[in-house]
Predict the structure.
Amino acid sequence: MPQPSIVIDKVSKRYRLGGFERGYRTLRDALTGKKKGEANELWALRDVSLEVERGEALGLIGHNGAGKSTLLKILSRITEPSSGQATLYGRVASLLEVGTGFHPELTGRENIFLNGAILGMTRAEIRRDFDAIVAFAEIDRFLDTPVKRYSSGMYVRLAFAVAAHLTPEILLIDEVLSVGDAEFQRRCLGRMNEVARSGRTVVFVSHNLASIESLCPRAVLLSRGEIARSGPTREVVAHYLSRRGKAAMVDLRAADRDGEGRARLTGIEVLSADGAEATDQLEFRQPFRVRLHYEVSERMSGASFGFGLLTSNGQRVFISESFEQERTFDLEPGPGSVDCVIETPNIVPAVYRFELWISDIPGVQATDHLVSIGEIEVTPGEQTGGTGVAMLTSGVRGVVYVDTRWSEARSS
Amino acid sequence: MSAEAPSHTPVLVIRPSLGWRALDLREVWTYRELLGIFVWRDLKVRYRQTFLGALWIVGQPLISMIIFTLLFNRVAHFQAEGGAPYPVFVLSGLLVWNLVANAINRAGNSLIGSSFLISKVYFPRLIIPLSNVVTEIVDFGVAALLLVALMVWYRTLPGITILLLPVAVLIACLMALGVGLWIAALNVEYRDIRVAVPFILQLGMYVTPIVYPLTAIPERYRWLAVLNPMTGIAQTFRASLLRLPVPTTALAWSATAAIVLLVSGGYYFRRMERRFADIL
């Protein structure tokens, strides 16, 4: 008889949104009796019930803001549920980010101990697995170099190597495979497969549907904080894909951000270039429009908006910032939105995500900054310029498509 | 580790907590390795990269000592209690004051400084301010070498009361941790507190007999100065080094205040803890 490993019973998480106010108060607000927000609430999760069996690998999929990360944060005890209960049988380790707590001034060796301890390994366990971690990361020559001198590839390899040697009964993983190069991703997937096969329970969140399919027999689709579908991964993924393309605005009010709160990006929409219809699928070279919704709490003059397009492994393809086009905005308190039209997106067919920011000191400091938001898919489409763009993913093709002309060289 | 041992499997129940929560020091104890690692990280970073940083830990009190000695002893003609050399008197006060003030300041800002950890991984949050206080004790130890050197220079030897030194340091640390916990938790919700803390601490040094002797305060106001729990700590610390009479009443009052602040700070911190990740 299968034993439960995780039992989630009607878990809900409600975030109070103080309108456009910041999450924290000042003492002055408290003394003057200013209340935080007017009952503006957002349910990140609503009555989610779910059971995961021992040794099962479960995939969690869904749009941004669907509640996947919130669920993992509750199971990892980072945040408390507003109601409901979750019971976990066994030691839990969570990996919500690669390299949590790495210190740039410390060496690779020192960071292995630091990061391992933060992730919940004992010193004895780290010492035991130390050589394996170093071998997995392939950094032995740089073991005593401060990690601030590492290339980003080395950094990620080291960080994942530590995480890959966690041996809890329950492992919660959020979107960590989206970093690193293709080869390293393959090795990580292999390692996670081993973990799942060794009788441990794995809950895995990813936007990479292919890795979910290869790793998890069962998947759960979350939508607006509720379970929309659950079952064999293939079916759930197919259902998810069939519903895409009807996407409207991505709600960013509860998204993770770095910001001081004076201005908050509240949503992003991808529209056709004329702004007539919303979409999350574009044809190759089809112009499109990005609409950013925001709310500001106090007048802000000379604000600049910016966004970047990211590949699925987090690399920037390009950025656009309004002040560089000599366009800044004077924002009045309250909500609003701005548009940016992308005229010639010469990007290779693949799935892309966004990075967004607002700044009133453009180029220096962001007032609000969100990374890895939304999702658009560029499809090969019809207009392949007559030459035919092969349906290859960005990893192989690079990310930009450049018009080129070949001819036979004339020998003189 | 085997997967089949259901009887030994720890069971973790996650549910919303209401109101006050237990301190759960046992859990903090199970995370003592992490506490050690945090202290080790902070010390390593501080003492490795900057030779100047380490120098500053000794240089800052040294320079302050010289200035305060000139000002209060040479210009204002204050005399140290028990006829101790004024530089030794000032430096001992500064050391214990800096221990408390720096620990309060760092512990108070520690949660905001660690928000990248708090939003990504679970561990008892008490570890963070606690590790900051421990780090400050090490800095205090380093700076104390200066005091030892100065005492050798002036040939002032402590008497049997030196046995009270650990008591004074312990109470100083408990006090710093208690206040630090209050500020750390308040800081998460009310961000403007962090601006006020350094200012209040600076004022605090001047209303506490640190750079001037308690005897410089007119007799009828002296009880007011003793109400300040830092007075008892500083006086005891000095008494242990300079063969002065032990201020028993002030010491008892300081110890009581420190424990009240620590326990209340601990409970308040735990009460606010559940919201840290959502606000930070």
User: Anything to note?
Assistant: Residues 18-22, 383-395 of chain A have pLDDT under 50 and may be disordered. Chain A has nine helices and 20 strands. Residues 210 and 400 of chain A are 23 Å apart (CA to CA).
